[in-house]
């Protein structure tokens, strides 16, 4: 394994170190392929629990990336160092057109830096929030479901369960291609099922809220919830709280408004099934009649959307 492939372990082994380096963020040792000096740092793209994300440019190649900066003391205090290590190790080895690329990672005395592909149009969540009724057209929704399903097929073939599909974790590039991101709750599955309750409540499958073992099928469920939200404007079990939300998810009863086409409704119902084994496979989602029919209208819809909105693309100043 090369030095760069080892960086995920290096970045997290010394999370609790308090040794002061004179050239903090500038030091490059032989085990690290990158240092902060390799980048021009631009404007902030977002703020998270443990740090910030900045648009950045690699000086040598001029490549634009998103640089996630995480603070070690916060990671240690909240006991999530192992989660970051797992996230980096999983995402670094995933290469797919619809998965956000993790190019590399390095660290200094106080911070961990993660180099990610720059998705200029940001989160799908923000796109939805900016639309009337917080929903989008069927051709666009079909495009995102198809691309997400292909990304998950790739993940599942690699043994990876994402476990936190939601609009906030789906990014869009300048051509409106979806990029699956945030592998913080992901796991590499073995032959046994998982038991950890994780993810976002609105998107959790019945087996998860019931504290039952779960597998790849939880990701398929989340695709159905996402499709519903994109076409209706909210998740099917939204506007509920606590036990009421859990009860509705367990019952798995959804009402699909008449504004959703019959073919799209059929696909939603084929995905949002209480019994995991009854959920339509990802390959069948991609091949579904509704997805195929919408694909014919997709290009015109994407072009119209792009021409009506401005990309968030912004490069760091020299």
TrEMBL record:
One of its GO terms (molecular function) is ATP binding. The keyword Metal-binding does not apply. Signal peptide: none annotated. Residues 17-30 have a biased composition (Basic and acidic residues). It catalyses: L-threonyl-[protein] + ATP = O-phospho-L-threonyl-[protein] + ADP + H(+); L-seryl-[protein] + ATP = O-phospho-L-seryl-[protein] + ADP + H(+). Its EC number is 2.7.11.1. The active site is at 164 (proton acceptor). ATP binds at residues 49, 68, 117-119, 168-169, 182. Keywords: ATP-binding, Chromatin regulator, Kinase, Meiosis, Nucleotide-binding, Serine/threonine-protein kinase, Transferase. Belongs to the protein kinase superfamily. Ser/Thr protein kinase family. Aurora subfamily. This is Aurora kinase. There is a cross-link at residue 166 (Glycyl lysine isopeptide (Lys-Gly) (interchain with G-Cter in SUMO2)). GO terms for biological process: chromatin organization; chromosome condensation; cytokinetic process; meiotic cell cycle; mitotic sister chromatid segregation. GO terms for cellular component: midbody.
């Amino acid at each position: 394994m090369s030095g760069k492939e080892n960086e995920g372990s290096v970045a997290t082994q010394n999370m609790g170190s308090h040794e002061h380096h004179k050239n903090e963020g500038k030091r490059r040792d032989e085990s690290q392929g990158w240092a902060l000096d390799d980048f021009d740092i631009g404007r902030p793209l977002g703020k998270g629990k443990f740090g910030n994300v900045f648009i950045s440019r690699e000086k040598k190649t001029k490549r634009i990336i998103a640089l996630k900066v995480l603070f070690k003391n916060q990671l240690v205090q909240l006991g999530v160092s192992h989660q970051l290590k797992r996230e980096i190790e999983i995402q670094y080895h995933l290469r797919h057109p619809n998965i956000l690329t993790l190019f590399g990672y390095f660290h200094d005395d106080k911070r961990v830096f993660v180099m990610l592909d720059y998705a200029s149009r940001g989160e799908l969540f923000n796109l939805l929030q900016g639309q009337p009724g917080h929903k989008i057209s069927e051709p666009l929704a079909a495009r995102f479901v198809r691309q997400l399903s292909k990304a998950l097929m790739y993940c599942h073939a690699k043994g990876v369960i994402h476990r936190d599909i939601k609009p906030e974790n789906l990014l869009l590039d300048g051509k409106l291609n979806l990029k699956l991101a945030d592998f913080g709750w992901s796991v590499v599955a073995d032959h046994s099922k998982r038991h950890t309750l994780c993810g976002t409540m609105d998107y959790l499958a019945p087996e998860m809220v019931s504290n039952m073992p779960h597998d790849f099928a939880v990701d398929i469920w989340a695709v159905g919830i996402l499709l519903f939200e994109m076409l209706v404007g909210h998740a099917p079990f939204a506007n509920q709280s606590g036990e009421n939300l859990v009860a509705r998810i367990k019952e798995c009863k959804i009402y699909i408004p008449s504004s959703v086409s019959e073919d799209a409704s059929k696909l939603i119902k084929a995905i949002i099934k209480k019994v995991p084994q009854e959920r339509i496979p990802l390959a069948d989602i991609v091949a579904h009649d509704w997805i195929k029919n919408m694909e014919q209208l997709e290009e015109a819809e994407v072009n119209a959307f792009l021409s009506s909105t401005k990309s968030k693309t912004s490069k760091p100043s020299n």
